[in-house]
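hey so i finally got around to running the thing on that chain from the lab meeting. sorry it took forever, my laptop kept dying and i had to restart like 3 times. anyway pasting the input first so we r on the same page abt which one it is
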Amino acid sequence: MKRIINSSRRSKQLFVLTFVLTALAVTFLWPSTKATAANSATISGQVFNDKNGNAVKEAGDSGLAGWTVQVLDTSNQVLAAQTTDANGNYSITLPPVPVGSITVKVREVVQAGWVQTTSNPADIVVTSTGGTFSGRDFGNFQKISISGHL
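ok and heres what got predicted. didnt touch it at all, straight out
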C-alpha cells in the first residue's frame, strides 16, 4: 500500500514539475508579440502664428491655442487627434504597433481666415519598437482684409 501511495505522490510531483517548467519556458523563451506602453510612439510639435509668413519660427511667433492636429494613416483615416494647448503645443501618443510597421502623417486642420505657411511634416514610419518624433511644427499666417472706398 505504501508503494502505491509513494508512486501516486511521485506522479503528482512530476506533473507539477512539468507544468512549472512548461510555464517558465512559455514565459521566457516564447517570443512575445505583445506591445507595451514602452514601445508606443509619441509625436509632438507646435502650431505657431507665422506673423511675417516666411515659414520660419522666429522670436515673436507665438503658439496658437485651440488648433487641431491629426495623425492619419496612408488612407487618410484619422488615427488620433489633439487640440493644441495655450502655447500651441501638442503631443499625441499612438498605441503600440504589435508587429511590423505603419506609416502615418501629421496634419493640422487649418482654421478659416488662416493659411499654412510651412510644408507638411514628412511621413513617419512607426515600428513595433515605437519612438519619439518631435519638432513636427506648423506655421500659419492670418489672412488680412483691406477695405475702403476710392
